[in-house]
Design goal:
The chain has helices at residues 3-15, 28-38, 59-70, 84-92, 114-122, 143-154, 170-180, 207-212, 222-225, 230-246, and strands spanning 19-23, 44-47, 73-80, 104-108, 127-131, 160-164, 185-188, 196-197, 203-204, 217-220. By secondary structure, it is an alpha/beta fold. The protein has a single domain, classed as TIM Barrel (Alpha-Beta Barrel). The protein has an eight-stranded parallel beta barrel, surrounded by seven helices. Strands 8-9 form a two-stranded antiparallel sheet. It is globular and about 40 Å long. The two termini are 27 Å apart.
């Protein structure tokens, strides 16, 4: 089992928070500002470093300092999806050097087990999340695909920590939960306090529904970082997610 799992579970218990925030923001400076505001409420901050218009090499160092001080993990949502050699270079090289600072990364399993091997080759201290499901309407993730992803994870449990799931297809997510056991974790995006959707096909479900269907960690984006007071909004989601997990 990857030690990142134990570290994350300890953070969740210590902070009574299973809340991850997706900082889908195109400014590195704004992400750092958000991390300061909400860091005490979360177990994970999820970034998209390749969308920053103002990325500088010291960004990871600054974010790492906040994460260590406020006790949360950094999840770089790169969604690797290429052959092993290419993803190994994408993970370790270029201007971002993700392997140097990310606690968690993710990848599509459609390429086959070579993608896990390629990422492992460049890995330092990260845990890998495989995409078993996604939340947008009309996605092509089938139950068969999800279960094969679970199989791939279980034979690579030294590196893989769990899955991206979706409570929009609860029957599939519950099967993933059962097959994964308690050692592998399920991270569910598309969470809002009120269910609904946006004009680009994204669907949202409540923290309660996601937890009931097997989520270990709920991922909230615009519902928090677009709020007038992100800190107080994060507290609402933290409380809702934690209460649902205790029930």
């Amino acid at each position: 089992m990857n030690p990142i799992i134990e570290k994350l579970k300890n953070i969740i218990q210590e902070k009574q928070s299973n809340l991850a925030v997706a900082a889908d923001i195109s400014s590195a400076a704004e992400v750092l500002e958000l991390a300061e505001k909400i860091g005490d409420k979360i177990c994970i901050l999820k970034t998209h470093v390749d969308i920053f218009a103002d990325f500088t090499p010291d960004f990871p160092t600054k974010l790492r300092e906040i994460a260590d001080r406020k006790n949360f993990l950094i999840f770089e949502d790169r969604k690797f999806a290429d052959i092993g050699n290419t993803v190994s270079l994408q993970f370790s090289s270029g201007i971002y050097k993700i392997a140097d600072w990310a606690d968690l990364i993710n990848a599509h399993s459609i390429v086959g087990p070579g993608i896990v091997d390629g990422l492992r080759k460049a890995n330092k201290n990260s845990g890998l999340i495989l995409l078993a499901q996604m939340t947008p309407e009309g996605n092509l993730f089938t139950e068969e695909y999800a279960m094969k992803t679970v199989e791939m994870a279980k034979v690579n449990s030294d590196f893989v920590v769990g899955f991206i799931g979706s409570s929009d297809k609860p029957e599939v997510m519950q099967k993933v939960r059962e097959a994964a056991g308690e050692e592998l974790m399920i991270f569910v995006p598309g969470i809002k306090l009120a269910a609904g959707g946006d004009d680009l096909g994204q669907t949202y479900n409540t923290p309660e529904k996601a937890i009931q269907n097997g989520a270990d960690v709920i991922i909230v984006g615009r519902g928090i970082f677009q709020a007038d007071d992100p800190s107080s909004e994060a507290e609402k989601y933290r409380a809702a997610g934690w209460e649902a997990s205790q029930e």
